[in-house]
Structure formats: structure tokens, C-alpha cells
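Module 6 notes. Inverse folding takes a fixed backbone as the condition and produces residue identities as the prediction. Think of it as a translation problem where the source language is geometry and the target language is the twenty amino acids. Below is one complete input and output pair. Work through it position by position during the lab.
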């Protein structure tokens, strides 16, 4: 067997292994929200993915998501949200504090958010990554330094939007396995459900106002 053929076989096996490692594994479906996880190269923790369709126009969903003064639908474990920078429809920076169950130490996190809008398809992508070295670490909090999250919202009709949330979070410090597993599946579920409930509430309020 010549060297070129050996190289081709090696590259094929390497590519196949990479694709297999990147595949999403279905975990559960609840309230029409599908949750997936997958292994992260070089990490002991997995990344997460949540998928659903929301009965609302993409523009209205994006308006809620992008509004820094409208964060009540975010993770209920968030006890503090400070806006460090905001450029409408472009980018933002936040400082976040998470209240975790006792005896786990609370966490904090700085994130840098970038918004991308496809003018042809009207798809909106909101990318968030950990932003380190901006806010000094605090004695009573453990700083999360490995974090990324991407919302992709795509119109699939006049009043319907396909929503995908993908991310990875290393909570840092000592965290029980049960809490790590809970964060892995609950994070995308609660975030997507919160967004959907927010849209439902807004829709109900809009109908009520029009009828008055």
C-alpha cells in the first residue's frame, strides 16, 4: 500500500471521527422544545442545544431579545444584570450574577454579545461569549470564564419563527454532578420557554389593548 493511499485512509478516519464527535444527541422533548447535547473536544462537559418554533414574527421576537430593558424572561437564577455597553442591533456587554442552590457558591460572568442580521433571509443571530478581564473578580463569587451561547432565529412563515439555542458553559469551581447535568439540560429549556412565554404575554397584552 503506497503512502498516498495510507494518507487518504488516515484523513478519512480522522474526518469521520470528527463528524461523529460533533453530532448532537437527542435527550428529551418537553413543551414542544427539543433538547440535545454533544461532546466537546478536550472538555469533560458537554454543549447544549434547544430547538422549537414560536408563533410570532421574527421581528417581534428579536425586538424582545435585543432590548436591554426587557430581561425578565431570562434565566430565573440571574439575580443581577448590569449593562456595560449597548449598541442597538449590533452589540452589547453584560455583567451577570447567578444565584445557585446552597451549598454551591454563586457565580458571576461578563459576556460580549454580537448581533448579525441577514438582510436577505431575515435570519437573526445573537452570539455571546465570555469577556474576561473587564470586571474584577469578587471574593464571594466564582467567575465563569468559559461560556458561549448562540441564538439563531429564522422566519418560517409570516407569524412563525424557528428558534435554536446552542451553548457551552463551564460553571468552574466545585459543582456536583447533579447540578452540572441540570444546567446542561435546563439552561436551553428554561431560556427558550421564557422567551416563548414572553411572546405569548406580549401577544395577549396587544390583543387586550386593541379591544379596549
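Target side of the pair, the amino acids:
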Amino acid at each position: 500500500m503506497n503512502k498516498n493511499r495510507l494518507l487518504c485512509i488516515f484523513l478519512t478516519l480522522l474526518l469521520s471521527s470528527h463528524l461523529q464527535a460533533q453530532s448532537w444527541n437527542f435527550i428529551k422533548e418537553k413543551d414542544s422544545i427539543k433538547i440535545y447535547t454533544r461532546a466537546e473536544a478536550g472538555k469533560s462537559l458537554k454543549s447544549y442545544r434547544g430547538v422549537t418554533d414560536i408563533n410570532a414574527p421574527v421581528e417581534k421576537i428579536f425586538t424582545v431579545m435585543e432590548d436591554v430593558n426587557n430581561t425578565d424572561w431570562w434565566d430565573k437564577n440571574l439575580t443581577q444584570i448590569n449593562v456595560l455597553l449597548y449598541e442597538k442591533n449590533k452589540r452589547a456587554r453584560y455583567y451577570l450574577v447567578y444565584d445557585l442552590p446552597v451549598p454551591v457558591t454563586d457565580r458571576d460572568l461578563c459576556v460580549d454579545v454580537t448581533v448579525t442580521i441577514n438582510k436577505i433571509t431575515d435570519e437573526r443571530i445573537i452570539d455571546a461569549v465570555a469577556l474576561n478581564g473587564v470586571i474584577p473578580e469578587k471574593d464571594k463569587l466564582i467567575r465563569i470564564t468559559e461560556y458561549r451561547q448562540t441564538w439563531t432565529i429564522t422566519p418560517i412563515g409570516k407569524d412563525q419563527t424557528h428558534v435554536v439555542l446552542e451553548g457551552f458553559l463551564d460553571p468552574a469551581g466545585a459543582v456536583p454532578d447533579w447540578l452540572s447535568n441540570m444546567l446542561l439540560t435546563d439552561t436551553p429549556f428554561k431560556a427558550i420557554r421564557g422567551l416563548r412565554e414572553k411572546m405569548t404575554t406580549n401577544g395577549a397584552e396587544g390583543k387586550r389593548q386593541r379591544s379596549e
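Reference fact for the lab report: The beta strands are 25-30, 33-39, 46-54, 78-87, 91-98, 107-117, 124-130, 142-143, 146-157, 160-170.
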